[in-house]
Amino acid sequence: MTDIAHPGSGVLAYLGPNGTFTEQALFTQDDLAGLDLRLASSIPEVLSMVGDGSVDLGFAAIENSIEGSVNVTQDTLAFEADLLIQREVVISVELNLLAPPGTGLDSIARVVSFPHATAQCRGWLQENLPSAETGAANSTADAARQIANENDGRTAAIAPARAAEVYGLDTLTAGIEDHSSNQTRFVLVARGGIPAPTGHDKTSLVVFQRADRPGTLLGMLQEFAARSINLTRLESRPTKQGLGDYCFLMDCEGHVSDELVADCLRNLHMKHGLVKFLGSYPTDSDNGDEIRSEASSATVEADIWLADLRGQVNG
């Protein structure tokens, strides 16, 4: 069986054009960079190509440390696609203001970029280009390509340094992001298959509550707390079924093959609502191994104790 999590061959789609942060993150993974790569015009197209079998794998941004979830990715995985996360990749982000050669900072009247990138530079834009309009592009690299083609002398793009190289642009100002600890998390997705546990894993899921009533979220969180499972992300999203109808997006430390994680998911599904499993996969960081190990040992000891008690029941 092919190891989807560590592919030796196959076709992979990611957000284009050339020069995106997605491409930069992808190229940190030697096994992925060596695949047959296909560019897509949007994140939904990336995920759709995987879902319909046009490609084997997709690679897309899912979360930023400053702006939070990339909703288009999260919502597509939660509500539309039936895909499983195979791996996460986290990279630090440096955003630069780029323009065609000969364009001065004082002539910039419009700045275009991917909305998430623009939002991460609000403070700098307000301080340095307070009168400039902002425009949206499908990606940071698409913004760079647009201004290179237009070359109107008044438009700049927020994009990575790689985009400047690809499209022959000058860097007017480097590092314009408002926070130096700016990181973006990307995920590799496939139609099926769960990577084997590594001991440093993360599980992602969506919980659709059965009813909106007091204590619903508390009950869900107690399932994790009772098993010493650390939640690394928790947020609510509208289900698109009506006002006030929300689901919960959760990432937790551990793998579905771990006894405690499996027991937690079982109870969530049984008592709290429909659970959509998005994957168990290697993570870039994990500080919960010791806690989970202690909790697992306690569970085994409790099982032995209970089995001894039950063995004393008169037949």
Write the layout of secondary structure elements.
Elements: E1 11-15, H1 21-26, H2 30-33, E2 36-40, H3 43-51, E3 57-64, E4 68-69, H4 71-80, E5 84-92, E6 96-99, E7 110-113, H5 115-119, H6 122-128, E8 133-136, H7 140-150, E9 155-159, H8 161-167, E10 170-173, E11 183-190, E12 201-209, H9 216-225, E13 231-238, E14 246-253, H10 259-272, E15 273-282, H11 289-311
Parallel strand pairs: 1-2, 1-3, 7-8, 7-9
Antiparallel strand pairs: 3-4, 3-11, 5-11, 6-9, 6-10, 12-14, 12-15, 13-14
Helix pairs in contact: 9-10
How would you portray this structure in words?
The chain contains eleven helices and 15 strands. It is α/β, with parallel strands linked by helices and 315 residues long. A hairpin with a 7-residue loop joins β13 and β14 (246-253). α9 packs antiparallel against α10 (259-272).
